[in-house]
């Protein structure tokens, strides 16, 4: 299996995890009560959608030219970086909403959420962390591929210039 297919499978796995996370585990409280939950669901669904697009692009899009492939690698690196940062930020705010520091002072938190709801929130957080780690792994693989191809491109350009200078 090629590196491109490994990245595609990782992205499709992240899409599945994110979709599962947003639809089942991150939907505990009503949306109008917990806006950090809404932000978390929005980012995880966006991550799922983008990962499906980039994951399937291996088999749905192919170019025989080097330049579009190079541009797609750099766009994918930028998109994966944005997704990682967005997921980390929403994880932070989601943890803040799970801990309910502001509410702890005045209310008994145990009565607000059932044990199942608390477990769902923690499962959602763990799934988000797994998704971030898989996104990071795919970012590293794409970055290594882009770096290797750029290195080959510079060597090829150097050899072409060198052969032109000899003439």
Automatic annotation (TrEMBL):
Locate the transmembrane regions by residue number: 38-62, 74-95, 122-146
Entry keywords, A to Z: Membrane, Signal, Transmembrane, Transmembrane helix
List the signal peptide residues.
1-22
Q: What's the source species for this entry?
A: Drosophila lebanonensis (Fruit fly)
Output this protein's name.
Uncharacterized protein LOC115621449
Gene encoding the protein:
LOC115621449
């Amino acid at each position: 299996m090629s590196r491109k297919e490994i990245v595609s499978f990782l992205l499709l796995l992240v899409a599945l995890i994110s979709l599962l996370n947003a639809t089942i585990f991150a939907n505990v409280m009503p949306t109008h009560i917990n806006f950090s939950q809404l932000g978390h669901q929005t980012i995880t669904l966006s991550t799922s959608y983008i990962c499906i697009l980039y994951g399937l692009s291996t088999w749905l899009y192919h170019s025989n030219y080097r330049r579009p492939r190079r541009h797609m690698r750099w766009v994918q690196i930028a998109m994966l970086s944005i997704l990682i940062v967005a997921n980390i930020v929403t994880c932070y705010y989601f943890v803040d909403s799970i801990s309910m520091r502001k509410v702890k002072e005045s209310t008994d938190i145990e009565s607000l959420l059932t044990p199942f709801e608390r477990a769902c929130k923690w499962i959602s957080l763990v799934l988000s962390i797994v998704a971030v780690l898989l996104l990071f792994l795919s970012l590293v693989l794409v970055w290594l591929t882009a770096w290797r191809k750029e290195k080959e491109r510079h060597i090829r350009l150097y050899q072409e210039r060198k052969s032109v200078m000899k003439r």
